[in-house]
């Protein structure tokens, strides 16, 4: 009852918080379907509302503000004030005043997909201040009230108000993407590549960088996200139930910028009925990539499943991977003599070149792990302090997954240095020629020190641009040797997709005991990339017992990936049924890159429940028509869904077309069982034959029925353990 009373009070406050005697000099409006965005430029009070029925969803400010240090070494809060505005067509230009510190301008454009802040610039007066933070979504605190907001007593506070916030996978183990406004407390939530070093509650990769945040409730959502890669770490800063976006510069440590500062496309604003649709709209606001070749859709086996237990022999792992039907065998960390050096550890792997040849003889390609920005043995690599990120005292910063000061760590390469750049290019080219990988797994782009500790010497490479430039340098070098090599990373923001051919859901170590629900959520967010010309690797957890749900999702996502061991945790053999299911996904996954999700009776998440997958599928555009090419069936049939009219089933099944047609037009169809039970499917004609397949053989089977245009296949528990799936020939 207390919570309900508090919610009613909160929204009553929201509806009155911005009332007052301020004269509405100019109200800027944008309408998108049933949503309207209004922005009073004089008071910098904006709101996003549902039109019918009327409902306020979000309120806050949008003008930029600075926390800076002036020439007298005093910290000041300076926020823009609009002096005047001019509008021509869909473009509005605002003239801004920043107190006594300078003037500026901001351009705001109405787009078909939403609102774009295309340009923000400032001209400082005679004495250039040092920017500590640039904020969007802050206001000066009422006099005498700042002590209620933060124990550091700043004279300003975040001011974005909404009942709900959505950041995909912001919290892990267990995964959480939706938050009520009171769930955060005083939190910094990384939106980009800076995790634990920014005090953020995450430490791993997927789906960062996201560079955006959704705010709203079950009536609708608004996303504010970057339109360009920022040269500062980007975080959502929550303070006393209120949020803002913070770009951290710390020029008080590293020196002031120039008199004239320009931020191109700093923010975009989009709207959607639910959070997934809003994120999809934000993603669609960016240009499409060139069409990606299907050669980048690969079935991956990764050594980490064994290597995390210090089990390093390559050939036995390769033999096991071959049994599962893997196409590419990825050599993970720690294959190097020391992290980042780019030469093999000859103690752990004395015959690594011969091992690579052995893999090729098994008709598997090989991939390789490469560290983005960490280095341990700088002397061997010819790097000095001038080539590393250093603190204010000139000491090299130490980066690690934990950022604990009591653990060993890695030096962080400064991409400002030409010697560092030359080293990274030379290392990558040498690795490409020596190891001949068909895939490079980039890692640890999210483990860099924040600007409170150290920054690249060149301001152009700071913030979110730091990891981007490191990965671009490595990717370009690898492609110069083999244009067809697949570059794999984790982030899903469209601005980064120019670098990657494959986005991986990572190895789910951070899902902990929440593999099923966690992989469901990650799969839903990964589906934002379904039409973005990038391969999506479903990856696995470390636990064979949790692999079924991962495989089911992967049949929809596309590219299989595994970081599983060659034995169970207790040392026993992996049951044949598990190997068969991996074999099934590696053999019958869809090779096409572009698709769209069909959610069926799955739940995309809202303020009442988290994202959950039940039955879902993928459609592909074939001859101008969207056709279902793969579908996952779970639970009981939902008679309200026309897409499921053709099916009856018991247990969990995947149905995957093996041709370029949809499942009802395909001449070959794979049916993969995950439980004892049956499946019935309406087909245009009786099958010519049906093969039962496992990872060792295939046999013709007559254990099927055809009656009244319906094919039925049944499977019991004993047969399930010996079956990868069935191939239907029409």
Describe what this molecule looks like in 3D.
It is a single chain. With 730 residues, this protein is of the alpha+beta class. It contains twelve helices and 45 strands. The strands form eight sheets. A nine-stranded antiparallel beta sheet has the order 7-8-9-10-22-19-18-15-16. Helix 5 packs parallel to helix 6 (352-361), helix 7 (418-435) crosses helix 8 and helix 9 (515-526) runs parallel beside helix 10 (547-557).
Summarize the structure.
The chain is built from twelve helices and 45 strands.
Would you identify the CATH H-level superfamily of the largest domain?
Aldolase class I
Radius of gyration, taken over Cα atoms and rounded to an integer in Å? 27 Å
> What can be said about the biggest beta sheet?
9 strands, antiparallel
Which percent range fits the helix content?
Answer: 10-25%
Low-confidence stretches: 1-24
User: What do we call the CATH topology of the largest domain?
Assistant: TIM Barrel
What sort of overall outline do the alpha carbons produce when their principal axes are compared? Answer: globular
Tell me the domain tally: 3
Which CATH-level-2 architecture of the largest domain? Alpha-Beta Barrel
- Alpha-beta content class: alpha+beta
Architecture blueprint of SSEs:
Blueprint: H1 2-17, E1 27-32, E2 35-40, E3 45-50, E4 55-60, E5 64-69, E6 75-79, E7 81-88, E8 91-98, E9 102-110, E10 115-124, E11 130-136, E12 138-140, E13 156-158, E14 161-162, E15 164-171, E16 176-180, E17 187-190, E18 212-217, E19 220-225, E20 234-239, E21 242-248, H2 251-254, E22 260-272, H3 275-284, E23 300-302, H4 304-307, H5 314-323, E24 328-331, H6 352-361, E25 365-371, E26 374-375, E27 398-399, E28 410-412, H7 418-435, E29 439-443, H8 464-481, E30 486-489, E31 502-504, H9 515-526, E32 535-537, H10 547-557, E33 561-562, H11 576-588, E34 596-598, E35 616-622, E36 625-633, E37 647-650, E38 653-657, E39 668-673, E40 677-682, E41 689-693, E42 698-700, E43 704-707, E44 710-715, H12 717-720, E45 725-729
Parallel strand pairs: 23-24, 23-33, 24-25, 25-29, 29-30, 30-31, 31-32
Antiparallel strand pairs: 1-2, 2-3, 3-4, 4-14, 5-6, 5-11, 7-8, 8-9, 9-10, 10-22, 11-21, 12-13, 15-16, 15-18, 17-20, 18-19, 19-22, 20-21, 26-28, 27-28, 34-35, 35-36, 36-38, 37-40, 38-39, 39-45, 40-44, 41-42, 41-45, 43-44
Helix pairs in contact: 5-6, 7-8, 9-10, 10-11
């Amino acid at each position: 009852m207390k919570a309900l009373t508090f919610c009613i009070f909160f929204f009553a406050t929201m509806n009155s918080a911005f009332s007052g005697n301020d004269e509405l000099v100019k109200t800027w409006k944008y309408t998108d379907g049933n949503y309207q965005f209004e922005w009073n430029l004089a008071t910098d009070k904006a709101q996003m509302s549902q039109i019918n029925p009327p409902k306020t969803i979000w309120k806050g400010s949008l003008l930029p503000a600075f926390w800076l240090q002036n020439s007298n070494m005093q910290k000041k809060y300076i926020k823009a004030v609009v002096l005047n505005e001019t509008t021509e067509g869909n473009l509005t230009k605002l003239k801004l005043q920043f107190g006594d510190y300078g003037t500026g301008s901001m351009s705001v454009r109405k787009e078909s997909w939403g609102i774009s802040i295309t340009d923000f610039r400032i001209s400082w007066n005679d004495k250039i201040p040092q920017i500590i933070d640039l904020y969007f979504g802050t206001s000066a605190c009422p006099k005498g009230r700042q002590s209620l907001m933060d124990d550091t007593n700043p004279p300003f506070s975040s001011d974005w108000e909404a009942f709900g916030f959505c950041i995909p996978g912001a919290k892990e183990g267990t995964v959480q993407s939706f938050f009520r406004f009171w769930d955060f407390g005083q939190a910094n939530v990384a939106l980009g590549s800076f995790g634990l070093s920014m005090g953020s509650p995450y430490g791993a990769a997927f789906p960062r960088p996201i560079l955006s945040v959704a705010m709203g409730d079950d009536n609708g959502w608004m996303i504010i996200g970057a339109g360009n890669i920022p040269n500062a770490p980007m975080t959502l800063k929550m303070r006393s139930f209120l949020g803002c976006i913070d770009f951290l510069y710390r020029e008080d440590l590293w020196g002031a910028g120039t008199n004239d500062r320009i931020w191109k496309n700093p923010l975009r604003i989009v709207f959607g009925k639910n959070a997934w649709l809003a994120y999809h709209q934000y993603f669609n606001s960016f240009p499409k990539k060139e069409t990606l070749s299907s050669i980048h859709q690969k079935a991956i086996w990764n050594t980490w499943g064994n290597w995390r237990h210090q089990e390093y022999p390559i050939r036995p792992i390769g033999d096991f991977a071959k049994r599962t039907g893997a196409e590419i065998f990825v050599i993970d960390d720690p294959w190097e003599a020391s992290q980042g050096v780019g030469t093999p550890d000859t103690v752990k792997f004395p015959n690594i070149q011969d091992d690579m040849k052995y893999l090729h003889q098994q008709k598997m390609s090989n991939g390789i792990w490469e560290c983005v920005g960490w280095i341990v043995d700088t002397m061997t690599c010819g790097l000095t302090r001038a080539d590393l990120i250093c603190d204010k005292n000139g000491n090299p910063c130490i980066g690690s997954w934990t950022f604990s000061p009591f653990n060993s760590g890695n030096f962080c390469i400064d991409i400002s240095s030409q010697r560092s750049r030359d080293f990274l290019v030379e290392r990558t080219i040498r690795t490409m020629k020596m190891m001949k990988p068909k895939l490079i797994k980039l890692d640890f782009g999210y483990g860099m020190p924040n600007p409170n500790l150290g920054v690249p010497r060149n301001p152009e490479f700071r913030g979110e641009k730091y990891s981007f430039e490191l990965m671009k340098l490595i990717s370009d070098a690898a492609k110069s040797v083999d244009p067809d090599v697949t570059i794999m990373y984790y982030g899903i923001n469209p601005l980064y997709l120019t670098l990657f051919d494959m986005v991986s859901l990572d190895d789910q170590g951070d899902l902990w005991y929440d593999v099923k629900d966690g992989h469901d959520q990650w799969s839903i967010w990964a589906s934002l990339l379904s039409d973005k010309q990038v391969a999506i690797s479903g990856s696995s957890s470390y636990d064979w017992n949790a692999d079924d749900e991962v495989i089911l999702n992967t049949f929809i996502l596309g590219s299989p990936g595994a970081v599983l061991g060659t034995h169970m945790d207790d040392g026993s053999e992996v049951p044949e049924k598990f190997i068969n299911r991996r074999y099934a996904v590696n053999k019958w996954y869809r090779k096409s890159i572009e698709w769209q999700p069909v959610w069926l009776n799955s739940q995309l998440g809202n303020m009442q429940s988290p994202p959950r997958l039940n039955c879902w599928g993928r459609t592909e555009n074939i001859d101008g028509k969207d056709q279902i090419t793969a579908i996952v069936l779970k639970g009981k049939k939902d008679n309200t869904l026309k897409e499921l009219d053709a099916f009856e089933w018991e247990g969990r099944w995947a149905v995957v077309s093996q041709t370029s047609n949809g499942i009802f037009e395909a001449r070959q169809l794979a049916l993969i069982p995950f439980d004892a039970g049956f499946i019935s499917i309406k087909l245009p004609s009786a099958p010519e034959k049906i093969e039962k397949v496992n990872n060792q053989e295939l046999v013709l089977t007559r254990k099927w029925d055809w009656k009244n245009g319906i094919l039925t296949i049944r499977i019991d528990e004993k047969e399930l353990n010996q079956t990868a799936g069935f191939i239907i020939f029409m």
